[in-house]
């Protein structure tokens, strides 16, 4: 069995999180390479189904990163995301997966270092939790990720 | 005479009536009922039997009423609308009357969620006012709710409860009026601690002339301890003035203080025009009833002709 | 509308535990509004059940479909082809929908994913309250538009009872006393005499107590 590194999907809103990611890049900040960023117009676009689908497909961790509360470009999108992430965490518990595999974060577009910090934080958390029980490749013992 | 019951005779004779309450046990034994009845029977005109109070299953009030009669006192059978539909209600009234029960107190009943069987189906086929009307029509018109006639009518003295402290306050007197219209002969109120507020309610009652159409008996509860009184003050519908709580708290002998307060309230109630009696609800303290009756100057009880059978 | 709530996942998973291929059927009307069984919820349930299976090392093949309504045979026709190879249909409709589907496919194992609760409406986003119990004899004109059968915990017709306190019901301080509401409303409409009048016992035979009911409109029977 090959060495496992976590596969983490980050749903980032264009206005804040994705900008912060860009900034982190241009600031040459180091953060774990196993984050797959999905750009959205707003975290309000995220729904429970897509969060679960990511985990079902084998992601070891998922997080949603949106604007600071009160600063959402579309006013309430990040509040909707917050509620949905909370609901999805409860569902994960019923499904039998650790709710800590899913998280919601808020930051502004100028917070490059915070973006890197979040990526680091989530990677550490997921590493501790181990591979997701639904991570097929790991279970089958194939080379990954 | 509507029923010929002792309670009716005492009230009709202009005497200040006294009734007390006995809660049937959660078991198939009449021992406790008989014991309490024998202890208080010379100090009260009638004994109330509660009907699965707070929705906790207890020995049925019809049966309990019979045990009281056998022990030598007159029962007031309480009946709620929570557990029986109109068929069972009318049936139980016929049964109770045939066994010699002459007083019935018609109540809505506490919701079953309060009791030990919260998953039970709640019935409430009738409400308390419809129940009063049903008993009245059975007694006076010899008719069941469906209109059919019966040969021998139940001769019941019809009681109802009143809550002078409930909401909406302005409507409480109207509700009493509705009960009187429906056929209530006597009223037993919820426990009174705030005599001033009760007096206000009685004023409104007198304004409508209701005190002359129905016998109103004020309810009292003797309290054993400060803790018990404080708990009561949290129960919906209870108003307990602060000075009473303070007295209980400071009392060296709380039981004695509780009896004192109860007797004082009874004396104050006797001064209020329209109050024709007192109903003593000595919950889990039935043995104190004779003491209270004596200290309130209500012993011995008046002699009235035996009820016609 | 009919308001329902999804059963816990564990309960639903237990119902379908022997099924390999499942059809999850939503409904685009009431249960979509109360977010219990609409298209979105169908997708979430399918995914969640699939994830639970995967954890056990098994597979679940599922398909989702959300017809207009389940309580109309015509709208269920879209299911005919889809049920051919499934061994279980999970209905995310109200109790009516589940039964219509079960009736249409008597040879299929049809299970309910929801607990159907009551007839009610939206009070605020995410909150639905009971208003109607389908008693068959509406008296809302006598109570200022507030139903005493459903909103009063004891279904009193000559209320309130002695347990009404500060406008709340004795069973729960969050529950309004229906008769306080009725009193306030009738007072505002200057029609308090409606509350002073005696209301005789209800004819429960017109409610479910009289047995399962039917409504027929002859002029609609072509």
The whole-angstrom Rg of chain C is 22 Å
CATH topology grouping of the largest domain in chain C: Rossmann fold
Q: In percent terms, what proportion of residues of chain C is strand?
A: 15-25%
Mean pLDDT of chain C: 95
CATH topology of chain B: TIM Barrel
- The number of helices of chain B is 11
Mean pLDDT of chain B: 94
CA gyration radius of chain B, whole angstroms: 18 Å
Computed structural class of chain C = alpha/beta
Q: Note poorly predicted spans of chain B.
A: none
Number of domains of chain B: 1
- Give the SSE order of chain C as H and E letters: EHEHHEHHEHEEEHEEHH
Care to count the β-strands of chain B?
8
- For this entry, what is the oligomeric state of its chains? heterotrimer
Distance between the termini of chain B: 12 Å
Sheet with most strands of chain C: 4 strands, parallel
Describe the structure.
The complex is a heterotrimer of chains A (145), B (309) and C (222). With 145 residues, chain A is of the alpha/beta class. Chain A is 42% helix and 16% strand. In chain A, helix 1 links the parallel strand 1 and strand 2. The termini of chain A are close together. Chain B has 11 helices and 8 strands. An 8-stranded parallel β-barrel of chain B has the order 1-2-3-4-5-6-7-8, surrounded by 6 helices. In chain B, helix 5 (128-141) links the parallel strand 4 (103-107) and strand 5 (157-162). Chain B is globular. Chain C has 9 helices and 9 strands. In chain C, the strands form 3 sheets. Chain C has a 4-stranded parallel β-sheet with strand order 3-2-4-5, sandwiched between helices. Chains in contact: A-C, B-C. The interface between B and C is medium-sized, with 36 and 29 residues.
Annotation keywords:
heterotrimer, A: about 140 residues, alpha/beta, Rossmann fold, 4-stranded parallel sheet, 4 strands, disordered C terminus, C: about 220 residues, 3-stranded antiparallel sheet, 9 helices
